[in-house]
Automatic annotation (TrEMBL):
This is peptidylprolyl isomerase. Residues 164-173 have a biased composition (Polar residues). Its EC number is 5.2.1.8. It is found in: Cell projection, Axon; Cytoplasm; Early endosome. GO terms for molecular function: actin binding; peptidyl-prolyl cis-trans isomerase activity. It comes from Nothoprocta pentlandii. GO terms for cellular component: early endosome; growth cone. It catalyses: [protein]-peptidylproline (omega=180) = [protein]-peptidylproline (omega=0). Pfam families: FKBP_C. The gene is Fkbp15. Coiled coil: none annotated. One of its GO terms (biological process) is endocytosis.
Length: 189
């Protein structure tokens, strides 16, 4: 996915192709279908499959970073997107999560790494990385593969320091050592 409603890809001859779409929605819908086609053409998936719909800006999220996310979750049914089982898109409250904390399904932890502020991604999560053999009573049947569209609205990097101008600066973008003292003699980085 590229800016200005473009999508680029390589064919089996390694030739580069670009497609320009009429709207942002059209390129996102196409990209979701590419993700579904990848899933359906694979014999088995034991990890999350994801496809960026919008890249976003800034530093990619890593373990320990906090995110605020708008999302919709669908059941994967009949080789495609089925019924919605959960969404916070039209609600006032975003989901807050800390990557690596284990507070969300493993598929989200895996599939959201590297996402940037403003980024959108389609995730297809196999049952073992979602709700497994138990499911969620009344919403997610046991052994369900799930599809999510997630949008990162805010990112708070785990290692942030305040710059001299009062702006927040990530220590990953700086050559300066981390301001957090380390008790084991190793730097926090």
């Amino acid at each position: 996915v590229q800016p200005n409603n473009y999508s680029t890809f390589y064919d089996d001859q390694r030739q580069n192709w670009s497609i320009m779409f009429e709207s942002e929605k059209a390129v996102m819908d196409f990209s979701k279908q590419v993700c579904i086609a990848k899933w359906n053409s694979s014999p088995v998936f034991d990890s999350v499959l994801y496809q960026d719909l919008l890249i976003g800006e800034g530093q990619g999220a890593e373990g320990g970073d906090s995110l605020e996310v708008a999302y919709t979750g669908w059941l994967f049914q009949n080789n495609g997107i089925g019924q919605v089982f959960e969404s916070n898109v039209n609600k006032d409250k975003l989901l807050r999560l800390k990557l690596g904390s284990g507070k969300v399904i493993k598929g989200w932890e895996e599939g959201m790494m590297g996402m940037k502020k403003g980024g959108r991604r389609c995730l297809i999560v196999p049952p073992a990385l979602a709700y497994g053999t138990k499911g969620v009573a009344g919403r997610v049947p046991p052994d369900s593969t799930l599809v999510f569209e997630v949008e990162v609205r805010r990112v708070k990097l785990v290692k942030e320091a305040s710059g001299s101008d009062g702006q927040s600066v990530s220590s990953r973008d700086s050559l300066a050592p981390s301001p957090v003292p380390s008790s084991d003699g190793f730097s926090a980085d």
